């Protein structure tokens, strides 16, 4: 019997991925950029065991057995085994089955990129178990699109690619976390309920019905990606923050432009947006940026020097007795799993 355990972090997009051009291969309509967190508060942990005594592949998610027949899961397993057959045929015999145990220590499916960390962790663990080397981000991408970004640390770009096969739709590192060590993220967990519309379904509906999505993917994001890379390389927080907020707002505008609309933010999310704009206006400069994924929870980017004042502001605006809003502090990471 042989066993490997890995942990993988969540990533938070500053240029959002929303919409696929190929559902099977999970090829996106536009590039996206994220930062990978380094905190044990927000990560997935996966153990995979292989044994000649196992009679079938099985998986447990957060302690509950799930079907191994999930096509994305099956595909990741199949592809790692295919690479292993070529690269390392003697590490795990082909006849052996695997048992997979995976858990998240944060709300699953509440718009906190749980599938990104989960599939990144699964693919990295399988790759290690089977002794596979090289870039496996294209395999993680086929588990969940945003998972390919969690395979790398620091500032990461997922290139949409142009090949029909998806071979160039991979993640690359723009810069390691050490490039901008003062950058901090606060994750405000507004709600840990499962979202009504999953990202996968939400983006399918957007592709089918939103007129704004095409404009965003083809006219807006390419320019934003260039500006964002420059802001990151120059450690220009004002630019970084403004693009981050505009991109979050545009992604939610696309969600609302979808028919029927996908509403991910709630009243508390909108209160947070207003609070941050007022805070920045009071300082006469952008000190904090917000971004929201497919859920109501807020991620706030700021420099380390601002953390005490912002935490104080959040405590003041959302007293614990009135509202459940947990603040998790995320740092960036150098590497992933
Ligand atoms: C992102 N999201 O860039 C965007 C922003 C949500 C909003 O990537 O269908 O769970 O598995 O590829 O990766 C969520 O999408 O969707 C996502 P699939 P995924 O982080």
TrEMBL record:
- In the UniProt record, which is one GO cellular component term? cytosol
Query: Could you tell me the keywords of this UniProt record?
Result: ATP-binding, Cholesterol biosynthesis, Cholesterol metabolism, Lipid biosynthesis, Lipid metabolism, Lyase, Nucleotide-binding, Steroid biosynthesis, Steroid metabolism, Sterol biosynthesis, Sterol metabolism
The Diphosphomevalonate decarboxylase-like N-terminal domain, residue ranges: 8-171
GO terms, biological process:
cholesterol biosynthetic process; isopentenyl diphosphate biosynthetic process, mevalonate pathway
Q: Which Pfam families match?
A: MDD_C, MVD-like_N
Tell me the InterPro entries matching this sequence.
GHMP_kinase_C_sf, Mev_decarb, Mev_diP_decarb, MVD-like_N, Mvd1_C, Ribosomal_Su5_D2-typ_SF, Ribsml_uS5_D2-typ_fold_subgr
What Gene Ontology molecular-function terms does this entry list?
Answer: ATP binding; diphosphomevalonate decarboxylase activity
Please name the pathway.
Steroid biosynthesis; cholesterol biosynthesis
Reply yes or no: does the keyword Nucleotide-binding apply. yes
**Superkingdom of origin:** Eukaryota
Catalytic function, reaction form: (R)-5-diphosphomevalonate + ATP = isopentenyl diphosphate + ADP + phosphate + CO2
Q: Name all Mvd1 C-terminal domain ranges.
A: 185-337
Record-listed E.C. numbers? 4.1.1.33
**Family membership noted in the UniProt record:** Belongs to the diphosphomevalonate decarboxylase family.
Listed NCBIfam families: mevDPdecarb (TIGR01240)
**Role played:** Catalyzes the ATP dependent decarboxylation of (R)-5-diphosphomevalonate to form isopentenyl diphosphate (IPP). Functions in the mevalonate (MVA) pathway leading to isopentenyl diphosphate (IPP), a key precursor for the biosynthesis of isoprenoids and sterol synthesis.
User: Which protein, by its recorded name, is this?
Assistant: Diphosphomevalonate decarboxylase
């Amino acid at each position: 019997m042989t066993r490997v355990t890995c942990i993988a972090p969540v990533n938070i997009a500053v240029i959002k991925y929303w919409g696929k051009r190929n559902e099977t291969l999970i090829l996106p309509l536009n590039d996206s950029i994220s930062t990978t967190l380094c905190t044990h508060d927000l990560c997935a942990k996966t153990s995979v065991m292989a044994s000649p005594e196992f009679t079938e592949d099985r998986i447990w998610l957060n302690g509950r057995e799930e079907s191994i027949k999930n096509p994305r899961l099956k595909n990741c397993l199949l592809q790692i085994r295919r690479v292993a057959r070529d690269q390392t045929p003697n590490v795990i015999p082909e006849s052996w089955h695997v048992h997979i145990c995976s858990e998240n220590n944060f709300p699953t499916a509440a718009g906190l990129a749980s599938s990104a960390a989960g599939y990144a962790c699964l693919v990295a663990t399988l790759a290690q178990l089977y002794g596979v080397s090289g870039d496996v981000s294209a395999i993680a991408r086929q588990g969940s699109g945003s998972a390919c970004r969690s395979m790398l640390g620091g500032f990461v770009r997922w290139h949409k690619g142009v090949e029909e096969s998806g071979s160039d739709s991979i993640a690359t590192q723009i810069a390691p976390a050490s490039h901008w060590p003062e950058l901090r993220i606060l994750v405000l967990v507004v709600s840990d309920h499962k979202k009504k519309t999953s990202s996968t379904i939400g983006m399918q509906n957007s592709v089918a019905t939103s007129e704004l999505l095409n404009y965003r993917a083809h006219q807006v994001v390419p320019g934003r990606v260039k500006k964002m890379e420059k802001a990151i390389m120059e450690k220009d927080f004002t630019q970084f923050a403004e693009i981050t907020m505009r991109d979050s707002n545009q992604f939610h505008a696309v969600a609302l432009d979808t028919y029927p609309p996908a509403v991910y933010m709630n009243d508390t999310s909108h209160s947070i947006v207003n609070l941050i704009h007022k805070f920045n206006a009071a300082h006469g400069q952008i000190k904090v940026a917000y971004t929201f994924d497919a859920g109501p929870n807020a991620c706030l980017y700021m420099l380390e020097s601002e953390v005490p004042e912002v935490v104080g502001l959040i405590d003041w605006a959302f007293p614990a007795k009135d509202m459940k809003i947990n603040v998790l502090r995320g740092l960036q990471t150098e590497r992933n799993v």
